[in-house]
Amino acid sequence: MTNVTVQVKGVQLKASTGKMHKRGASPGNRKDYIRVRIIQQILGRKNANPKVIAEMIQYIKKSKSPPYTAFMKLTKTKKYPGMMKRFYSRFKYKDHQLARIHNPSMKRNFYKDHITKVLKAIR
């Protein structure tokens, strides 16, 4: 079991792997699991899908451009509609949200509301 404590704006967030299955629980999987748990705590929402945010953050960190530019490049890839479909799968008005995923103002707001919170906390 791996425990991690991250301090965000004076608040300590704790995450642990808990009782992960020992057979496919490599250190990489544990780190991803912990990262997702911390993102879930940062967003503070039950209906937001932290795995999608973790994938987006991973893509942004791999690219050598600034985070906003990397996110805009991500929105032009083939993965983006699938990611957004998984992200909004738990929302009540998911059809309305999915109809707007290519709207530039919606992309900007999504980045501002979700991605920047996590990026600030992780840095």
Summary, kept brief:
With 123 residues, the protein is mainly alpha-helical. The protein has one domain (3-122). It has six helices and two strands, in the order E-E-H-H-H-H-H-H.
Secondary structure: elements and pairs:
Blueprint (H helix, E strand, L loop, with lengths): L2 E6 L2 E6 L10 H17 L6 H13 L4 H8 L4 H9 L6 H6 L4 H19 L1
Antiparallel strand pairs: 1-2
Helix pairs in contact: 1-2, 2-3, 2-4
Descriptive overview:
The protein has 123 residues and is mainly alpha-helical. 59% of the residues lie in helices and 10% in strands. It has helices at residues 27-43, 50-62, 67-74, 79-87, 94-99, 104-122; strands spanning 3-8, 11-16. Strands 1-2 form a two-stranded antiparallel ribbon. Helix 1 (27-43) crosses helix 2 (50-62), helix 2 (50-62) packs across helix 3 and helix 2 (50-62) packs antiparallel against helix 4.
- Please give the domain count: 1
Question: Radius of gyration, rounded?
Answer: 15 Å
Largest sheet at a glance? 2 strands, antiparallel
* Helical residue percent band: 55-70%
* Percent of residues in beta strands: 5-15%
**What's the total helix number?**
6
Cα(first) to Cα(last) distance is 24 Å
The total strand number stands at 2
Strand order in the largest sheet: 1-2
Flag low-confidence runs. 19-27
Q: Which overall shape is indicated by the principal axes computed on the Cα atoms?
A: globular
